[in-house]
Amino acid sequence: MKKDTFQKILISTVVVFVLIDLALSQFGIKSAQLISVLTTIKYLFFASVVIISLIYAKMEDAKLFGTLLKLYGLLVILYVIFEYRGVI
Prior knowledge:
Elements: H1 3-26, H2 32-60, H3 62-85
Helix pairs in contact: 1-2, 2-3
């Protein structure tokens, strides 16, 4: 695939991720089951954004790929720490 195609896919997945996050935070959804499903979908879109951005970075530049990989690793570690401490 071309870099332009990956860029379009990345932008569209980020937009969908932001819309789902907005729906979860702004609309007063009362159903726990619907919130659970939307949260799962949000996490799946976030994972796809990470994977697509890594593929795009690898196509763009090897140094950018390494930097992004380190940054995502740090974010995962921080998320686990904050989740464990009860901050999130």
